[in-house]
Design a protein that fits this description.
Number of strands: 7
CATH class: Alpha Beta
Radius of gyration: 18 Å
CATH architecture: 3-Layer(aba) Sandwich
CATH superfamily: NAD(P)-binding Rossmann-like Domain
Largest sheet: 7 strands, parallel
Strand order of the largest sheet: 3-2-1-4-5-6-7
Helix content: 40-55%
Number of domains: 1
Length: 265
């Protein structure tokens, strides 16, 4: 793939890790395709991000759709393929970030059936936060948008291996996501594609604030954290930028902690 233009696709681009990575990569000279799902109340943030990217004289093509909807995924992939074919027909995506955070936050077992996770909620959480990575990669590969030099990253968390009340469905999704990363890394290695999961530490994001007891989570980790602070979204964004350097392509199939040592304490 050529170095210019360099295209990045960020799934979950309007907040948290997706926002920080979109801006960091734009600063590094990448053009950004962003997929996000925002209603009127939060749409302004996505529009602000698009504006900041364009101020950096980079292209920003954002799609306000449900990334887990097969029909919408097809539309976005077709639009990306069309855009790239007109501007850089011999090349595809340099970076793909999967940072979708939408799932059920209920216990598996509760005194009242209505308070526990349902089959539909469990399956939805796994589909959005894990399986959708596979479906996006499949569709992008079919359009020749993934090839030698493409770096694929998926956001996981310590919850993939540890337990937090009400986090069971998301924990299962993160564990599945990590398994998908390993499988994709092996299947795509011959194409020169690297696939890694990034395990961020506790980070104050809109997604974290939806977890019941997130205040306790942040307050509990901070005194024990080796770096004496929480992880920031920019920590992950800068790591992704660094991983775009030549010589990092042999790093694939891993769960990489970007947490200042949090996971090992």
């Amino acid at each position: 793939m050529s170095n210019h233009p360099r295209w990045a696709l960020v799934l979950g681009a309007s907040s948290g890790f997706g926002e920080a990575t979109s801006l960091e990569l734009a600063n590094a000279g990448y053009d950004i395709f962003g997929v996000h799902l925002d209603r009127k109340a939060t749409l302004g943030n996505a529009e602000r991000i698009v504006g900041e990217i364009r101020k950096l004289e980079r292209s920003a093509e954002f799609f306000n759709v449900n990334a887990a909807d097969p029909g919408k995924r097809t539309e976005v992939c077709d639009a990306i393929a069309h855009k790239i074919s007109r501007t850089d027909p011999n090349h595809g995506l340099a970076v793909i970030l999967h940072s979708l955070a939408f799932g059920a936050l209920k216990p598996f077992v509760a005194d009242k059936p209505e308070d526990q996770v349902t089959q539909a909620q469990l399956e939805m959480t796994l589909d959005v936060m894990a399986n959708s990575l596979v479906y996006w990669v499949q569709d992008l590969c079919q359009r020749n948008l993934i090839g030698k030099g493409t770096r694929i990253f998926a956001m996981t968390s310590a919850g993939g291996a540890r337990v937090w009340p009400t986090y069971g469905a998301v924990s299962a999704a993160k564990a599945a996501l990590e398994a998908h990363v390993r499988q994709l890394a092996v299947e795509l290695a011959w194409k020169g594609v690297s696939v890694n999961a990034l395990r961020a530490g506790v980070t104050d994001t809109p997604s974290l604030r939806k977890i019941p007891g997130h205040e306790e989570m942040m307050a509990g980790i901070l005194p024990r954290h080796p770096g004496k602070r929480l992880t920031a979204t920019t920590d992950v964004a800068k790591f992704i930028r660094a991983m775009m350097a030549k010589g990092t392509e042999w790093c694939t199939g891993n769960v990489i902690s970007v947490d200042g040592g949090e996971f090992v304490i």
